[in-house]
UniProtKB/TrEMBL annotation:
One of its GO terms (molecular function) is hydrolase activity. It comes from Rhizobium esperanzae. It catalyses: GTP + H2O = GDP + phosphate + H(+). Keywords: Chaperone, Hydrolase, Nucleotide-binding. This is Cobalamin biosynthesis protein CobW.
Length: 349
């Protein structure tokens, strides 16, 4: 095949760090580059795909946005990612650049390693791995776990071979980065930002470049065209899991759970959002997002909660043939009391 390899950028980062927001921005300032987007989300509600399809960029049409919904991309590489890439590469009109948004819970390492599969390696190269960081969450200590508590849990249950799953995942995503974007800098002050930089630097032995952003506003010229060829270096970026299980024991996401709550129309949207805030705090929900059918309003209300912070805005009108509904995806640690969270949300309708 006499074609240049297509560059592919992998965008990773913990739940709610701002990956979709950054990609939305990227699509609008990527110049004439035709971009194909592969999106993977944890939870059965395609919120990210919906948000990105709604941005109407000519260089990335709805057809160019592919959602992988069969679980976290790092665990479904062979069944999901490789066939998707193969199909994409068979298209008559090949993209200039491929952007892959991993789920917030994915380990980027297995995905990068997949670029060494024979059929893929000859046609595509990893331009770079970009890890988006929620600076406010780092500043609030979200990823710095109470090691005594973790040790106590491990003492009770010897089968626990992990440190805190959130902390570990955060480090794995940093370890794989070629570029780290410290996002949400609007939510912290200058001194906080210095501490965040120090903490992020201390979590990875490699020293990738760090840049700062608000609302994922980083120019396409910085994000695309890193030219790293990360697949050649994946052996130097092993995740905790790979280091602990050199024998290839399968990785899973048992520590996290997600479920969808469906409700009818909501009369008092402000009261609803306030009540969600209390439920999130009471049950330590990590991420909640979706759309609300507000009674009497022609527009759809989008909800985006990351930890205790909740954003909500009317994002677009409901379509004429679209079924109006309130649908929210909730993500938390496995020990989150799903039944209680579901019941509390359902009681709000
Ligand atoms: N204040 C502030 N909010 C931001 C910033 N970037 C993103 N957000 C908000 O953070 C929330 C989550 O952003 P997303 O872009 O959906 O995050 P994500 O990483 O794609 O989330 P998952 O795919 O669920 O892991 C949304 O409400 C965004 O509007 C920022 O720089 N500052």
């Amino acid at each position: 095949m006499n074609q240049q390899k297509i560059p592919a950028t992998v965008i990773t980062g913990f739940l709610g760090a701002g990956k979709t927001t950054m990609i939305r921005n990227l699509l609008t300032n990527a110049g004439g580059k035709k971009i194909a987007l592969i999106i993977n989300e944890f939870g059965d509600l395609g919120v990210d795909g919906d948000v990105l399809k709604g941005c109407g960029a000519d260089n990335c049409t709805e057809d160019d946005i592919i959602e992988l919904t069969n679980g976290c991309i790092c665990c479904t590489v062979a069944d999901d990612f490789i066939p998707t890439m193969t199909k994409l590469l068979e298209r008559e009109q090949r993209p200039d650049h491929i952007v892959i948004e991993t789920s917030g819970l994915a380990l980027p390492q297995p995905l990068v390693a997949a670029f060494n599969w024979p059929d893929i390696r000859t046609q595509v190269t990893v331009d770079g791995v970009i890890t988006v960081v929620d600076s406010a969450a780092v500043a609030a200590g979200r990823f710095a776990d109470d090691h005594d508590a973790v040790d106590a849990r491990r003492a009770e249950d010897e089968s626990l071979d992990h440190e805190s799953p959130i902390e570990e995942l955060f480090e794995d995503q940093l370890t794989c980065a070629d570029l780290i974007v410290l996002n949400k800098t609007d939510l912290i002050d200058a001194a906080g930002l210095i501490r965040v930089r120090d903490e992020v630097a201390s979590r990875t032995v490699r020293k990738p470049v760090m840049i700062e952003s608000r609302n994922g506003e980083v120019s396409a010229g910085i994000l695309l065209g890193l030219g790293i060829g990360t697949e050649d270096d994946v052996a130097n970026r092993k995740s905790h899991h790979e280091l602990e299980h050199e024998d290839g024991a399968p990785h899973d996401h048992d520590e996290f759970d997600s479920f969808v709550v469906e409700l009818g129309p909501i009369a008092d949207s402000i009261g609803f959002v306030e009540a969600l805030k209390s439920i999130i705090a009471a049950h330590d929900v990590l991420r909640l997002k979706g759309f609300v059918d507000v009674s009497g309003k022609p527009m759809r209300l989008q909800i985006q909660a990351v930890g205790s912070r909740i954003d909500h805005y009317f994002d677009r009108a409901w379509g004429a043939s679209e079924k109006r509904a309130t649908r929210l995806v909730v993500i938390g640690l496995h020990e989150m009391d799903q039944d209680a969270v579901r019941a509390a949300i359902e009681a709000l309708a």
